[in-house]
Specification:
globular; 298 residues; 36% strand; disordered C terminus; Porin
């Protein structure tokens, strides 16, 4: 298996230190704090470790504090309910004695029922599209140093944007984005693992959709963004080592917050998952120089 993908899988598996308590490490991928998708995927993994014979169908999470990449994260799971068909879990992620994140997840026994879905967007397929890292390399001189690492480091996923990407551009664009996503190597056929990885990758690209109409000066280091919450619904089984189309739009931005929605379709147009997220989006007058700046506090 590709070493970057293998490392991510290990990161999401967690260490069990008590019946309902787990410990996870972090990776610095070039983000300003622990990447939100990492905590999301690890928290879902912790909940999955306490459920048998049921599949996650939804999760709702809040990011409470910036995560420290140098310290382990402790995940405490509350087995809130085990009913006839559904199980509910609450997970709190803790660092330095304080919660940094909480999550509620619901699991269901497999059932059949009514079935309909939205139609997949009519967009070009992934073949022939450039990967985002390749695009970033063409514009690397226009990016701040920290963003350079985030955009160009080897990743466990391929990202192929459908719309043209001009990093460093301040031209306003409609708040719509389509990105093809796929793990960089084949994976075991274990749905829980594919769900963990989708939770992780669903935090990429989504919030940025809310900034597109505003032509923000990212290259100048004057934009502060942070996820505030994240919701994810799993509709149907899928394989994340096959191409998924992440179709995103942003119906609103206000109050220094951006809101974005996403739908994930497989290559056959089957809707496999939906997402929604609100996040902090602040534009400051001068580039960020210190984390003590009160405007950085979420």
């Amino acid at each position: 298996m590709h070493p970057v993908l293998e490392d991510l899988i290990t990161l999401l598996q967690l260490e069990r230190i008590e019946t309902n308590i787990f410990r996870g490490d972090s990776r610095d991928i070039g983000s300003a704090q622990v990447f939100g998708g990492q905590v999301l995927g690890q928290a879902l993994s912790a909940a999955q470790h306490t459920v048998e014979d049921r599949v996650a169908h939804s999760l709702h999470a809040y990011f409470l504090r910036r995560g420290d990449m140098e310290a382990p994260i402790i995940y405490e799971v509350d087995r809130a309910r085990d009913g006839g068909s559904f199980s509910t879990r609450r997970v709190v992620a803790i660092q330095h004695g304080r919660p940094i994140f909480n999550l509620a997840a619901s699991f269901q026994s497999r059932e059949s029922g009514l079935d309909h879905q939205a139609t997949a967007p009519d967009v070009p397929g992934p073949d022939g599209l450039k990967d985002l890292a390749e695009i970033a390399c063409d514009h690397v001189d226009k990016l701040p140093v920290k963003m350079r690492r985030f955009m160009t480091d080897k990743r466990p996923f391929d990202f192929r944007p459908v719309e043209s990407v001009s990093l460093g551009s301040t031209d306003p664009r409609p708040p719509v984005k389509h990105v093809w996503i796929r793990a960089v190597d084949s994976l075991p056929e274990e749905l829980a693992l594919h769900q963990n990885l989708l939770a992780y990758v669903s935090d990429f690209e989504l919030l940025g959709t809310s900034t597109l109409p505003h032509g923000l000066p990212f290259a100048e280091g004057k934009v502060i963004m942070a996820s505030l919450d994240h919701a994810l619904w799993f509709h149907r089984p899928f394989s994340i080592d096959d191409w998924l189309l992440y179709a995103m739009d942003s119906p609103n931005a206000a109050g220094a917050r951006g809101f974005a929605r996403g739908q994930l379709f497989d290559a056959d147009g089957v809707l496999v998952a939906s997402t929604a997220q609100e996040g902090l989006v602040r534009v400051i007058d001068t580039p960020r120089e210190t984390r003590s700046d009160p405007r950085l506090q979420v």
